Amino acid sequence: MEEIVLETRNITKIFPETIANKNISFKLKKGEIHALLGENGAGKTTLMNILYGIYMPTNGEIFINGQKVTIKSPLDAIKLGIGMIHQHFMLVETLTVLENIILGLKEYGFVINKRAVKEKLKEIEHLYSLKVEPNVKVWQTTVGEQQKIEIIKVLFRGANILILDEPTAVLTPQETQGLFKILKKMKDDGKSIIFITHKLEEVMQIADTITVLRKGEVIKTLPKDKTTKSELAQLMVGETQACDFLRKRKETNETILSIKGLIVYSDKGTKSLKGVDLDVKKGEILGIAGISGNGQKELVQTIAGLKKVAEGKIIFSGVDITNKHPRFISRLGINYIPADRLAMGVAPNLSSIDNAIMRRYYRFPLSKRGIMNHTKALAYTRMMAKAYKIKLDNPFAPIKLLSGGNMQKLILAREILENPKLLIASYPTRGLDIASTQFFRQKLIEIANKGKTIILVSEDLDEILSLSDRIAVMYEGRIVGIMDAEEADKNTIGLMMAGAKA
Amino acid sequence: MDHHSIYISLLANTVKAGTILLFPTIGEIFTERAGILNLGVEGMMLIGAFIGFIVAYTTKDPYLGFFAGTIAGGIASLIHAFISITLRGNQIVSGLALTIFGGGFTTFYGQKWINMTLNNTLPTVKLPILSKIPYIGPIFFSQDLIVYLSYITVLVMWFILYKTTMGLNLRAVGENAKAANAMGISVYRVRYMWTFFGGLLAGAGGAYLTTSYAPFWLDGITAGRGWIAIALVIFAMWDPLKALFGAYLFGGINALQFQLQASGTTIPSAILNMLPYIGTFIVITISSIIVKTRHVRPPKELGIPYIREEK
User: Fold this and answer.
1) CB under 8 Å to B225, separation ≥6 — which residues?
2) Do B184 and A73 make contact, defined as CB atoms within 8 angstroms?
3) ipTM, 2 decimals?
């Protein structure tokens, strides 16, 4: 009989607008990696936040090592040996790595005993080959390093139950493998791990047991050895989705967007684009690959008119759009799906309706002589929801209550309905579940097949390879290579992303 | 008096006048570091000044007065803490209300005390050896005990902020309350504690004013010093050591204004009275520019209520 370290019985969590978890029961054994698999909005993160004391369950019980517990705050969770690595890292950027690691701990004295901390860091480095530079500020570290800091934080607290929420979302393939090694080592040390994800390959690679969640409910728990990717996908999505990715290449030799010697500074005052030259052909899907932070964000924001050009020129269909106003640019036919949904894609506290009509609220028929027609706005939003399969329980509720996938669909719909000539999609499927991702990719193909031009920025190489006609790779503020997708392979691009010369 | 001793006494007065500002500035720095903006400093100072004065007057013990004024400021700050932390109200409105409350309270109860003067003010205690140092001694070490307390406060608070777990928790809460909470820190407790601390020090600044620098009671005796303290927080870039310089700079303006008035200058007194406020404008402009170019910025969570269960 294996030891059960954590068990939930009939956990239910009701938010004002949605039921996030419905009667969830699952068991975590000692020394196993248990994947919680599910689409976005399936309730994985909510469940974990309940285990970590951030949310209180509306109903249900939690058992740790057979004892019934109430977890009222993260402090309770930490005391019970639960450690959580959040999807959005819980780090204080202005503090040093060391300060972040010992945050909230009392063992290191009133006056911080840095030497003791560093000794323990050495120990962990030795055990798990996790190395960090303790004295730098967190904002100066890379995403991969930040995740290491998060893991070290959990280890410092002696956690034996680890919860990782979408830990690989921001990592390079190499970093992901590194993480998996660490997780396996922890497992061998007898720690139990809950691994939240929607990526099937990762589940098959690392998990021992898999629990599939859908729409807030447990669908099935099964051992990895007795399942397949396609079975899991089916369980996750519910019904099998037919997908037809039939790209008919439509590109012409006409250049629709031409960028010459573009130099742009970041908010921190450093050069983030160091002379970018790029020609986009009319009707093509141009994929831009690269590890985030190498200038992709700045490049697309500059095209959309959101960043100031220091040097260089951007010409769109013969019009110079260098340093023009964003609305002027969007009126010319360039629409933009930003990378960070909550920060730039939507106004989180406004309703779905308000967000849906953002591009056209001031135009007839939604507005007449400056007076808005709310009936029309609602009708427009419903039409949009229907056409793009957006699940809108309550269109008047703040949009932040929607799941990532639904929110992203709404943004896509909003931009496509403006009938752009050039659509820029920045990380469009980041954090989305399978169904939404498929839907999204299909829509992109669909509009490209109609002769629209698309710039697709993504870290997901499979996505870039399957969608793009041509692929450009960015590294340290430059385009280091550009190739036809048919000639490209994952390995070459991967190396170029890491800075190897083409 | 020869020129020499005029300057010495001007600078010694600078330290005294600066101390009035130093306490509330340090207090507000720590409150803001926790993410709470308390615009009630002026109100808390007034309450501290008033309570400090009447306790010192009735007990004839200026130390007791100073202590009582300090506590009174702390208690007043709890109003703001309750509204902005527990009720998650608007911190700007709540702080302004506290300032107005302080003014109203002291005007109402202070009527019969107007123009009364304290006979025993805080006595000067010359520190052995240190007070003998030329220039430095008479300026910094021939003061009363509360001035020395302010030196210690600056050093101790600087140490706490940067070198201890307590300070670490505080900085984390003000920068990223969610992350701090995820690490088991009670955001509410930290915020209550440092808002109370800010109140104590605002009260101390007010009480020091009426038990030492201006030992009488007048309506609105703090004369906008609470607002200057809030400006000094920005000038100091939320750092206790820099607050010392800011406080003495304004203390200097204050002292200079009195010295000039006393010396019968031809500059109209209205202009002289404006000096601290003009100074505030200049300092805020300059420090805002510095803050912008050096990428120093206020604590990220400043003014934002913390709600744990928000989706």
Assistant:
1) B20, B21, B24, B42, B45, B205, B209
2) yes
3) 0.86
